[in-house]
Design a protein that fits this description.
With about 70 residues, the chain is mainly α. The protein is built from three helices and no strands. The protein is elongated. About 0% of the residues are buried.
Length: about 70
């Protein structure tokens, strides 16, 4: 059966759909591997990482007292 006629011109600047499909397959494979490693679990696997919380950012930086001790210590 012949393909349906698509009146839209081909976009020569668009990403190659075969490359996008390969990237989707890789992402899907990593998510599947993560799901298998965590089964059974209460939370689903996520591909995105959350932003660090304020407490995490403060834990990485030294306190004012530590900075003063470093200067005079």
């Amino acid at each position: 059966m012949a393909e349906k006629f698509n009146p839209a011109p081909h976009d020569k600047h668009a990403d190659d759909p075969r490359e996008a499909l390969a990237a989707d397959r890789e992402t899907h494979a990593r998510l599947d591997a993560g799901l298998v490693d965590t089964f059974p679990a209460s939370d689903p696997v996520s591909a995105a990482q959350p932003t660090p919380s304020k407490a995490d950012a403060e834990a990485d930086s030294p306190s004012l007292w530590d900075k003063v001790k470093a200067i005079f210590g």
